[in-house]
Amino acid sequence: MTIETDLDRKIASTLGDLTIDKEQVRRLKIRDNARTVTTFVEEWLVSRYDQPGRDPAETFGDISAFMSKHLPTKNEKESIKNRLLTGESVVLLDHFSVRIDVKKGKRFVTIPCLEERNAETSITLLDEHSGLMSGGQWGAGRLSIREEAKGNVIELIEFRPMQSGRVKLDALIEARDAFTTVEWLSVLLRTMGYEPDAYKEHERRSIVLRLLPLVHKNLNLMELAPKGTGKSFIYSNLSRHVWLATGSLTRAQLFKNLNTKEDGLLARFDLLVIDEAQSIDFRGEDEIHSNFKSYLESGHYSIGQEKITSECGLMILANIDLDHQSRPVRADYVMGLPEMFHDDALLDRFHGIIPGWEIPRITVQHYAQGPGIKADVFGEYAHQIRTASSASFPFGEVPAMKGDSRDVNAVERLARGLSRLFMLNPGHPDYQEFVLEPAMDLRERVRSQLAAVNPSEYSSRVNIEVLD
Q1: Band of the pLDDT at 270, cuts 50, 70, 90?
Q2: Which of 26, 34, 258, 445 has the fewest CB atoms found within 10 Å of its own CB?
Q3: Which pTM does this prediction carry?
């Protein structure tokens, strides 16, 4: 049993019901039963069934029974459909999402565990749960069969989301005041599922940079690192507003499908993460390249006659080789990415590069050993502060700067994100160390790669002067 620390007590007493014991969630090994569930699903189940002093075996038993009944495996899909056909209504726990087919006048529901894409639902239900149309939501959905002249249709008739609703930003701002900046960094790491004391100081500061595109709109980053450092884990486990893509991507998937009129990933999420980018297959690379350049510069792109604007950020994750000193083997390490990212004009549109080579491979000792903010709570918190007004969330200020326009734009965005993450504004004694300097470092790595791929045009230094 882990010994409770002062940080544990402060997190639990200050943040209260917003927290969960991350170690207890891991110890229950819920994913041994269903590896497809996300962290926020695990934590929701533990919050529902675990009580202080309760035998973990009883908690696990109740969770397992719930999952067996409501979270079926793929080989149970036919028996579920058969139950529906006999007139039974069935409650399933899954990631439900809705797409609107204007031509057919239908609201189609996707239910992954049934491999069903053409279930339907009502406008009334969507009015109550609009998140189903913006990336989908994990939750408990009640299904039934509706008879129609052309055949039976599976219908989603009730839905109860398991993610948090809106988070009270003022409560988090008040709670933040109880922590020093170093302690708040530890809170963020715990929330991500990591144990702060298992990492060196510079490693902690590198890891937390992964949260930046969650808290600031249109922020474009790369993280290049060896395998096993947990690059993609938080993006698929902390927020329903993030889409993690692997394997291959088409123009239609990214931007818009002209046949179905369905918006692409960049128009539907807060953040698009391209994982294993060193081996991603871009189908229609020239057109994707062109649209990427336009979108990363301006936040909009054109498909056919339509101009689409979005606040989605882009995160590129890729594996690279390191030398015996745990540094990239080659100076121009972006050359390991697909060819389009060798284009300095596209590369210059990325705001920063996270030094993933500074983050060690994850071991059991790196897992969180105590309480942190619940994953779904943090995901909604991050989603809200992207667009929150200065009245409701008075952070994100940056000092005046002059210099190269792309450098200034990048550092300003990065600093605004760090300001929101740490809740620090200029004038705070920690602002320079935790906000401005890391923002400069992130952008300087982009400059180093620009200089490596095109030394005749780019210097390796950030060209910015911060004004008083």
Answers
A1: very high
A2: 258
A3: 0.89
